[in-house]
């Protein structure tokens, strides 16, 4: 405030200023307080949800260790239905897909992998699901669909993406393109990878 004003003038000026802006300031303070309270509630809710999802995930892993398929399926489905969008749900769906492949239930596996693609917030799990789904499509003689699904993949799992692309190209009779993808896949592998001999054999069989 102006230093030339006396105390009474300062009070009058303050009252006038508050009359002009007081309501706005009060509203702003209320809004800030509501935001703070809401954020605190949300963080507590998120922590509670994470704890519950973690427990379901633990129970699922215990089921895996004990070969208890009923428990695994129940907890995995709980994670997928109640905690969709979490990494726990992604892993659960990938696990169910893996078990379905092992049981030769490919359509069920495809559904679980598509679920990850549709619901996951993780680029890692999304790419992994696309590659695994594409591998199933190749095995079902659907190379065109597999290649379409693989577009944009390879940033996270380059070797896996390239090797499945190569398999799809082989199924289409495009051996030269397949060979190039096998070579690129082998180059993308870490040193002394156990997968390298298999890819080299597949490439040499062309």
End-to-end CA span:
87 Å
**H/E element string?**
HHHHHHHHH
Mean pLDDT: 83
Q: Decide which structural class fits the backbone.
A: mainly alpha
Q: What kind of sheet is the major sheet?
A: none
What proportion strand? Answer: under 5%
Task: Kindly provide the radius of gyration, computed on alpha-carbon positions and rounded to a whole number of angstroms.
Answer: 29 Å
The level of helicity is over 70%
Question: TL;DR of this structure?
Answer:
By secondary structure, the chain is mostly helical. Helix content is about 80%, strand content about 0%. The longest helix is centred in the N-terminal third of the chain and has 59 residues, at about 5-65.
Describe the overall structure.
It is a single chain. With 206 residues, the protein is mainly alpha-helical. The protein has 9 helices and no strands. It has helices at 7-65, 69-82, 87-102, 106-119, 123-139, 143-150, 158-171, 175-188, 196-204. Helix 1 (7-65) runs antiparallel to helix 2 (69-82), helix 2 crosses helix 3 (87-102) and helix 3 packs antiparallel against helix 4. The longest helix is centred in the N-terminal third of the chain and has 59 residues, at 7-65. It is extended. Residues 1-5 have low confidence and may be disordered.
Keywords:
206 residues; mainly alpha; extended
């Amino acid at each position: 405030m102006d230093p030339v004003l006396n105390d009474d003038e300062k009070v009058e000026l303050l009252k006038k200023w508050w009359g002009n802006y007081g309501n706005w300031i009060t509203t702003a303070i209320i809004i800030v307080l509501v935001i703070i309270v809401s954020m605190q509630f949300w963080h507590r809710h998120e922590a509670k949800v994470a704890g519950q999802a973690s427990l379901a995930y633990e129970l699922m892993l215990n089921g895996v260790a004990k070969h208890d398929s009923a428990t695994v399926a129940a907890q995995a489905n709980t994670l997928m239905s109640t905690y969709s969008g979490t990494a726990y749900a992604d892993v659960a769906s990938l696990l169910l897909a893996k078990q379905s492949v092992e049981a030769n239930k490919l359509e069920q596996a495809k559904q679980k992998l598509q679920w990850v693609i549709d619901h996951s917030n993780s680029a890692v799990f999304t790419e992994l699901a696309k590659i695994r789904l594409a591998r199933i499509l190749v095995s079902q003689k659907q190379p065109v669909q597999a290649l379409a699904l693989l577009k944009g993949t390879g940033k996270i799992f380059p070797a896996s993406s390239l090797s499945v692309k190569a398999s799809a190209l082989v199924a289409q009779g495009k051996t030269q393109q397949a060979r190039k993808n096998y070579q690129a896949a082998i180059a993308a592998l870490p040193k002394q990878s156990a997968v390298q001999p298999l890819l080299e054999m597949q490439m040499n069989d062309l």
